[in-house]
Write a structure and sequence with these properties.
This protein is mainly beta. The chain is built from 1 helix and 8 strands.
């Protein structure tokens, strides 16, 4: 594997389970045991009812493009090889939204409400990144 030159996430106590799931090709999100709502990004308290009874569940990994932008200029030199690329806000079937890239599609084909599914990209031995591609029919 070549050296990964782009910024990497910080794995901390709140997100460690999430990143371990990604390494195993599982998209884990949290769910409140009191109000049953799903939660993303990882945290210790439910943002809906403030309960601390939070559990990890596996997401279906399916969703739709809620919003997006096409970066036609690299944000940093390390992104130059991938330009143009899509940064999107994905709404998962479970109702939470997360920011990621849309890959394996021409950037000009990406549309709002486009069905997508998670794929995983190994960045380093420790970090595997969830990205999204058009959903298979």
């Amino acid at each position: 594997m070549s050296e990964y030159k782009k910024p990497l996430p910080t794995v901390d106590g709140d997100s460690r389970v999430y990143w371990e799931g990604c390494r195993q090709h599982k998209l884990l999100i949290q769910q409140c045991e009191d109000c049953q709502k799903h939660i993303f990004y990882p945290r210790n308290l439910c943002p809906h009812c403030h309960s601390d009874r939070i559990k990890w569940v596996e997401s279906s990994g399916k969703g739709k493009v809620y919003s997006y932008t096409i970066n036609r200029r690299p944000a940093f030199p390390s992104f130059a090889e991938e330009t143009p690329y899509v940064v999107a806000l994905i709404e998962l079937e479970e109702g939470v939204r997360m920011i990621s890239n849309i890959i394996n599609v021409d950037v000009d084909q990406v549309k709002i409400d486009m069905p997508v599914e998670v794929v995983f990209e190994k960045a380093t031995e420790e970090i595997t990144l969830p990205k999204f591609q058009p959903a298979r029919s």
